[in-house]
């Protein structure tokens, strides 16, 4: 699999404490309810969450500087917390960042629809099993949603397509089934889409090509069939296209190296691609990784691949190719 580019999806929390500020009963009660739903705290992270400490100085809590007493960030990543996510978090209506990554939280993601200011939601690497279709429908300010590495099953909610301001969406390494919702193509600001390592099937939606800023698309390790839509193969901003380990069957267009001018990584391995490898790939001067193993490619290995000065990985085995690798 093509290595995922370093990006905001791997957001690192900052534990910043605010000075004493006026109390807000709603925000304080929401935090207390959240704590009560936690059944395991092996690192005693919540020791500071008591009446003798201003809640704006509780571990992982950061309050707003402009709206005194209102919680702006909640960062509890990597604390080995067990339990469920309390729906009371939906009452923190000025919350902008919620990071609960790398814990052992289980159950269903509750309704957070009142968090209209929320911009970053990171729940990766937990044990969440459910995602209600409308849990995030009104979180229209979200720019980053990372719930990869959980146990989420069922269909990907089409309602995620209402999150128009998303620039990064990571649903990878779950157990999602069904098709990729075409509504994801409505997220016109989307730059990073990771759906790899699920059980998705059906065709790749043509609508994904509507996201004009799409930079990295990883759909590998699913059960997708059909072909790669022309809208993606002609996508001038796409730098990484990884669809490895699916059931895709098609002939690559002869112009692919010209229509994907920014392409850095191409992962087509473990599919059923056939016929010749287009010589135009040698025109895609940014190509660094080309993974084409275990397909049905035939003919000569294009000598033009030798023109790729940035090429670091070229994997062509388990095909029916002739000639030497340039």
From TrEMBL:
Alphabetical UniProt keywords: Leucine-rich repeat, Membrane, Repeat, Signal, Transmembrane, Transmembrane helix
Pfam families recorded: LRR_1 (PF00560), LRR_8 (PF13855), LRRNT_2 (PF08263)
Keyword Transmembrane listed: yes
Domain named Leucine-rich repeat-containing N-terminal plant-type: residues: 25-64
InterPro entries registered for this protein in UniProt: DNA_repair-toleration, Leu-rich_rpt, Leu-rich_rpt_typical-subtyp, LRR_dom_sf, LRR_N_plant-typ
Transmembrane is among the record's keywords: yes
Signal sequence, start to end: 1-18
Gene3D superfamilies, sorted: Ribonuclease Inhibitor
PANTHER family: DNA DAMAGE-REPAIR/TOLERATION PROTEIN DRT100, L DOMAIN-LIKE PROTEIN
Name of the featured protein: Leucine-rich repeat-containing N-terminal plant-type domain-containing protein
Lineage: Eukaryota, Viridiplantae, Streptophyta, Embryophyta, Tracheophyta
């Amino acid at each position: 699999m093509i290595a995922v580019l370093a990006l905001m999806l791997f957001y690192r929390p900052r534990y910043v404490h605010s000075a004493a500020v006026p109390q807000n009963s709603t925000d304080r009660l929401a935090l207390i309810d959240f704590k009560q739903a936690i059944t395991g705290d092996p690192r005693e992270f919540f020791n500071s969450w008591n009446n003798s400490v201003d809640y704006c100085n509780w571990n992982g809590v950061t309050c707003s500087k402009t709206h005194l007493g209102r919680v702006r960030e909640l960062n509890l990543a990597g604390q080995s917390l067990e339990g469920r996510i309390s729906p009371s978090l939906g009452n923190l209506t000025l919350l902008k960042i919620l990071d609960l990554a790398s814990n052992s939280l289980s159950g269903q993601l509750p309704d957070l629809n009142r968090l209209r200011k929320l911009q970053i939601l990171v729940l990766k690497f937990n044990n969440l099993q459910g995602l209600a279709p409308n849990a995030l429908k009104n979180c229209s300010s979200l720019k980053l949603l990372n719930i990869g590495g959980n146990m989420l099953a069922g269909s990907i909610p089409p309602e995620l397509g209402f999150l128009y301001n998303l620039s990064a969406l990571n649903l990878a390494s779950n157990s999602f089934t069904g098709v990729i919702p075409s509504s994801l193509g409505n997220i016109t600001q989307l730059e990073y889409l990771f759906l790899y390592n699920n059980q998705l099937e059906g065709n790749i939606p043509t609508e994904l090509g509507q996201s004009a800023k799409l930079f990295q698309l990883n759909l590998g390790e699913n059960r997708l069939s059909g072909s790669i839509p022309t809208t993606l193969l002609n996508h001038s901003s796409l730098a990484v296209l990884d669809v490895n380990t699916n059931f895709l069957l098609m002939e690559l267009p002869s112009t692919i190296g010209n229509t994907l001018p920014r392409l850095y990584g191409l992962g087509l391995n473990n599919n059923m691609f056939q016929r010749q490898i287009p010589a135009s790939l040698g025109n895609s001067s940014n190509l660094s990784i080309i993974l084409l193993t275990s397909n049905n490619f035939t003919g000569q290995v294009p000598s033009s691949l030798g023109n790729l000065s940035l090429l670091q990985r070229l994997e062509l085995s388990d095909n029916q190719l002739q000639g030497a690798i340039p």
